[in-house]
Amino acid sequence: IPTSEAHRPQFHFSPKAHWMNDPNGMVYYKGTYHLFFQYYPDGMTWGPMHWGHTTSTDLVHWQEQPIALYPDSLGYIFSGSVVVDVNNTSGLGKNGQTPLVAIFTHHNPKLEKAKTDKHEYQSLAYSLDEGKTWTKYAGNPVLPNPGITDFRDPKVRWYESQKKWVMTLATKDRVTFYSSPNLKEWTKESEFGKEVGAHGGVWECPDLFPLDHKGKKAWVLLVSINPGGPNGGSATQYFVGDFDGKTFKPYSTKTKWVDYGTDNYAGVTFANTGNRTLFMGWMSNWQYAGVVPTSPWRSATTVPRELGLKEVGNELCLISMPVKELNALNGQRVALKNPTAKTPFDLPAQSKTRSFKLDIATSNSSDFSMTLANEQGNELIFGYDKTANAYFIDRSKSGKIDFEKGFGKRHIAPRSSSSTTMTLTILVDVASIEMFADDGLTVMTDIFFPESDLTKLFISSAKGGSSAPVVSYTPLLSTVE
Ligand code: FRU
């Protein structure tokens, strides 16, 4: 491995080179998953934004494509979504071709400098060749700025019962819903959130979608905030409620988090995936994204996750689990025989891959924690703290941490399940850990940068005997040539 590529994810998408942030315009069309992303192709830190592009036929292997959208005279290309305009409501389809339509924010740096408060507005681009090439709509912008500094990240979906498009837009300290018959003319419907939810930072990258719960439809509203996350920096909260095409009414106003780790931001769902709701986030945090020790690229996405709902107490909660397609990477599963610090489980002796999955079954009756370590004494510790009734990931000794003062910390996630049995699925990919506890009710995603691969795994605390956790290890194939 070239030293420069030491932290390269093996089964997560990361651009070959340069800066990436939010996933954008995720859409499934004719057998291909498209992931566009906030991209600065000329540097290693955030700059004038483009939409990068990568595609996959299985959600596992990604092929980077030419840049889809370049900045223009109206501004940088900020985050947004893509819809399949099946009925050609926009009229952008020609000769029977179904248009894919991107709805994105133009961010105008000149107007920003002039402090007009009107430097962000929504625009369209369309593709008539299944997402390969894109043309900006000549009538841009389609939704001008009414005088709100932060006015961005349109996520659009078709609202079938009223035959209209609904846009969920981040408008500073709330979301605003708009509707349109044709993607070109937008009418304000309502606002949500000024007095509800977490407000430690600006609201960004919202998403509104229905999920089925026992035959009943509930609507989930995702809202990313920066800063103000539960473990610092940027994070994504959610609300569950009703939506009638005009107004969103939450069932509860308790703040809930999609992910308690520090490295899942700006995540939204794919369009056009039928009954499945698939989510991907940016696996970093605005607090340190620009200084993480990777080169020649910065950032990766989370694994794609399938979303659902689960009733806990009398609250409907979001659950997220890695998509089943990832099982294609599974190698031979091995049971771990309670490895101790003295005789740890040696990962390279099991497989040549640098990434793996752990399946853990235990009970909530005592603490348990596991440690991943290397020869240099770098350690990543994760587990369950009984006294706090919380899961945790501790990266305070995980290797390179001093590039930013808040990076080397222990992160916690309150457990919300009350079941006495506890199951966890953990994905480790060279420089990231994604922990899915209790069927995806509590999720933590953290990145880390060891001085060499963490290849020793041991149980650092747990009860022995029959209450010892049952752990299995599955090596995961690499998707990187
Ligand atoms: C979220 C965000 C968006 C914006 C984009 C700019 O991470 O700040 O609100 O559109 O990144 O790159």
TrEMBL record:
<dbReference type="Pfam" id="PF00251">
    <property type="entry name" value="Glyco_hydro_32N"/>
</dbReference>
<dbReference type="GO" id="GO:0005737">
    <property type="term" value="C:cytoplasm"/>
</dbReference>
<dbReference type="GO" id="GO:0005987">
    <property type="term" value="P:sucrose catabolic process"/>
</dbReference>
<dbReference type="GO" id="GO:0004575">
    <property type="term" value="F:sucrose alpha-glucosidase activity"/>
</dbReference>
<feature type="domain" description="Glycosyl hydrolase family 32 N-terminal">
    <location>
        <begin position="12"/>
        <end position="317"/>
    </location>
</feature>
<dbReference type="InterPro" id="IPR018053">
    <property type="entry name" value="Glyco_hydro_32_AS"/>
</dbReference>
<dbReference type="Pfam" id="PF08244">
    <property type="entry name" value="Glyco_hydro_32C"/>
</dbReference>
<comment type="similarity">
    <text>Belongs to the glycosyl hydrolase 32 family.</text>
</comment>
<dbReference type="InterPro" id="IPR013189">
    <property type="entry name" value="Glyco_hydro_32_C"/>
</dbReference>
<dbReference type="InterPro" id="IPR001362">
    <property type="entry name" value="Glyco_hydro_32"/>
</dbReference>
<dbReference type="InterPro" id="IPR013148">
    <property type="entry name" value="Glyco_hydro_32_N"/>
</dbReference>
<keyword id="KW-0326">Glycosidase</keyword>
<feature type="domain" description="Glycosyl hydrolase family 32 C-terminal">
    <location>
        <begin position="344"/>
        <end position="467"/>
    </location>
</feature>
<dbReference type="InterPro" id="IPR013320">
    <property type="entry name" value="ConA-like_dom_sf"/>
</dbReference>
<dbReference type="InterPro" id="IPR023296">
    <property type="entry name" value="Glyco_hydro_beta-prop_sf"/>
</dbReference>
<protein>
    <submittedName>
        <fullName>Glycoside hydrolase family 32 protein</fullName>
    </submittedName>
</protein>
<keyword id="KW-0378">Hydrolase</keyword>
